[in-house]
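#help-structures
NK: newbie question, is this the right format to request a structure? protein is ASPIC/UnbV domain-containing protein
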Amino acid sequence: MPSSPSQRRYLLIAAAVVLLVGAAGVGYWLWGRSRLPGSGNPVYEQYVEAFQVGVAALDADVPVVAGENLNKVVGLIPQEPAGWADRGLFHLRTGQLDQAAKDLAEANRLAPDHPEIEKLLGLLDQRRGKFTEAVTHFRKAVERDPTDVETLYRLAQIVDQEHKEGSEAEYQRLMEQILTVRPDNLHVLVDRLRVAVRRSDRPAVQDTLTHLRRLAPTWADLTRKTFAEMETALAGPLGESDVFPLLTFANVLRSEPGYSRTASEVSPPDAFAGNPLRTFVKLTPPRNSPAPPDADLTFTPEPLADIPAGRWDAVTPFWLTGDTAPVVFAANAREVRRTGAGLVLPSIPVAPDGLIPIDWDNDFRTDLLLVGPGGLKFFKQGNDGGFTDVTAKTGLGDDILRGDYATALAADVDLDGDLDILLARRKGPPLWLRNNFDGTFTPLPIFAEVDSARQFVWADFDNDGAADAAILDAAGKLHVYSNERSAQFRKWPADVPNGSYRAVTVADVNDDGIFDVVALRGDGALMRVSAQNKRAGWEVAEIARWGPPPDVELGVIRLLTADLDNNGVPDLIVSGPSGGAAWLGGAGGTFQPLAAAVPARVSAAVDLTGSGRPDLLGLDAEGRPVRYRNVGRKDYHWQTIRFRAAPAAQPLGDNRINSYGIGGEIELRTGTHVVKRMITAPAVHLGLGERPRADVVRIQWPNGTSQYEFQPLIDQGVVSEQRLKGSCPFLFGWNGEKFAFLADFMWSTPLGMYINAQDKGGFLQTAEWVKIRGDQLVPKDGHYELRVNANLWETHYFDHMALHVVDHPAGTELFVDERFALEPSTPHFQMTGPTRPIARAWDHLGGDATEAVRANDGVYLDRCGRGLYQGVTNDHWVEVDLGDDAPKDGPVWLIARGWIHPTDSSINYALEQGRHERPRGLVLEVPDGKGGWKVARDKIGFPAGKNKTILVRLDGLDGPGVARRFRLRTNMEIFWDSFHYAQGRDGVEIAKKELLPVTADLRSRGILEMTRANPSSPELPDYDRLVARGQVWRDLIGYHTRFGDIRELLEKVDDRYAILTAGDDIAMRFAAPPAPPSGWVRDFVWVSDGWVKDGDLNTRYGKTVLPLPSHNMTSYEAAPDGLENDPVYRRFPKDWERFHTRFVAPDVYERGLRPLRTEAYPAGGQP
């Protein structure tokens, strides 16, 4: 207490000065803030657009787009800290640490002590190894935001690494702080248990075990078993030995559904990816939530032109091609009509939903299927826009064509790239018409437990990449089937909620990025039925009410979704025979009823005129087709995305995706708001609210590949990128200047793959050799350095890798036969004399091809055209003349070098159907002496990947001597670079030495850029150019090898292998032996043994790492039965404690465009 009046007066004056200074500071800050541009200012609007696109690109892991936009941001308004912070993160992710430090320092100067900026500064110091400084920054961040679990966990990890006095106690305290925010986080619970055991903290151990015990009933048997064993071990005195059963339990627990998601909450897969600031610190923030609904919407009836008066039974929008506006087709029992033309087609009695647009032949012209009590009728659209009745050519019997059907759905049931047809028989189970892609269909049973289906819904309810099925039957029962791929469906493991339902549709109504079943219950409640935790159960909630619905036949009431008001959230529309209603979607999964009446008998919501507003299409009380024009007060923006599976200039040579991507998914992001829709038509309409255009859209094509489009135009077409998604691991070598691409390898063991439409991924040959030229490997510090990279949608099982050094006399050559063949052979190399070019070559059309195949120059012979499917084309050959000076006696070897554009499992699966040419491997033909040709050697196979060499013995093919004239024939997409020949030198002296790696370090490096010079050239990876660090594929689920030294797993062929996923990289060093003696040269042979399994939707067990391969397996037929029952695991269980402890799941990929977390502080202001 002050002891005198003078002291009190002094303190009052001091306090006043402090207040004045504070007020001045606040005033200055407000004045400075007021000088910043605001909404409506062109500079501000440019900043918002570039900032949000840059942030979206950071979230989507597209660094090129992120860098371009964030560079623009800091130049537009340099006073805003968020731009500097996010560009600093961009530089941090791309390894530009000095530039990251400059940007983050500027962000920190503009906004001192901002928690998100402090976190990024900590991340930078951690990356630089400055752990003390990193801890300081992280402590500041969590002081300001104690709920930031990721930073808390990162701080705990560094504290643990420092091993200072009290580190373990603080680590435990931080785990407990995280658990106050995320009490059921399994990853953190295990970490708390681990440190409590080390500290002999019995109360904490018991508390954690009690919590885990409460969660245990939903775990798998093995997890519960190991948990019980751990509990028993921890019941006695606590000690260091108790950590081992805990580690065993922790490893097993990682496989539980949801574990990897909870781990990502605190410890993202890429530890240094960081999170961008997604809102402004000083600028006024834009709206990131959806715009308010337009509650004043009304619908004005307008008759459709060109449809004669009379009663019609069905009406539907119809995209004749993908690049035109939809027209309208109407049908009754007599005829089919369309607007805008005088088209009249004969009809049959049709169901209310019996007009089915479907492009069944992928020619980008939509065909028409009629379905109803009158059976089926197929009309194919021709190039002139006319329609021809092709019903008689479908190969379907009268019992199918004259059946009684309630509805139908066009869907790629077997995921093979063409649209099939699901038929709802009025009585009996549904029927699947499998599209054979040759104009015919094969009827097959499906969903046998469903009787009298009335409505189908097709969407991915568990977010695993394959669309599932929801079916409403005539009794109002809802059935849900999970898609197990390859046309295998199973009843959903969790029981579907009971109830009598009248209509179903699909939408992401709770805004979590996973599609929900939306069902109208018999009492009028609109129910959200959401799958939980990958099929573990269902969450059911009422979202609206319309009631009670009329008591009419099932299938008459329609439930639709569309963004009627363009506010950025799909709305719900229900329409019955006497009226309907709509509910407008808003922020947070809320729906408000629309005051305006919704007409009866509405069948679709679609923009028919290009106005940007979805109209309602239906039939009036007299059965006349009517467009109900959408009229509202809020002029929100909108976006139309059109889909095309191949460029217009090249419609052939792919067919991995149906023409318009039907069955795929699209996400659209504006700011941090994301909306997700199914692709059900050639164009999808999306509302944008107050934003003039989207920041980014992500398309998930039906074959499982994804694609990003940034800042698409208002009405933009999106053509599928014809990406290579599987091609085996890549090998790079140090050539004295850089790590250059050498080869892809392990082509001989594609697990679970349909091979050439003949073999279902057996164990053909696990050992493979690839030649490396002497000039391609240069010693570095006395070692040969190689890199093995996993880059595509695959899991690799590397059992053995070695480098053979082969020294041989100058004037001799070493070659390896690098072919794939269905008949296994023992890898070997062949010594020859000098190679010579062939004299002449002709293509299958008679054109001279000599120059194209004379040299290894990367110029490929490409004259065979393209077929229906990628990898299979027309019958073609290359005719070769060695020349008169070629040797007459053997041994003589043809050395053919080229590459193959491969098929994949889904293509091979499709080729098994209908009347299609199967892929035919190479055969060598010689003249038959009668003016024709005969096969001299068959089953040659094909080049095993990119730029591979095939060796073919030319002597003894047709009697004694060397065949000087021959041709290589196939129908596969093989592109030849060169044809040479050489005499064999089997007895030449060589010196061979096998090198095992002295280091083999597994690490996460990222996804490499792949480019191709032209359509005739292969896609090649560039080791120096990373395009992403995160998860760009839907990685196979299961245990992979932890990062670090893996030499023990690669030493020998023993089924103890390293397991890698996309983005993994092995850095290998081999001690270089002394140089070869004078007059000798050196080449190398890369030796590998192992397996590859890709994630193609028709690869057997292509979703998981299991079942584990082994050399004593004769097939890959047995389904996985859990890790604990896998024979390889049972032989080597310790490997899953020492090596295979990294559990991979596609959580990041499945998140799509949604940010991992949002800022903890209010938008736009200092925290």
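mod (FA): yep, format's fine, and the tokens are attached above. The CA atoms of residues 736 and 780 lie 7 Å apart.
NK: thank you!
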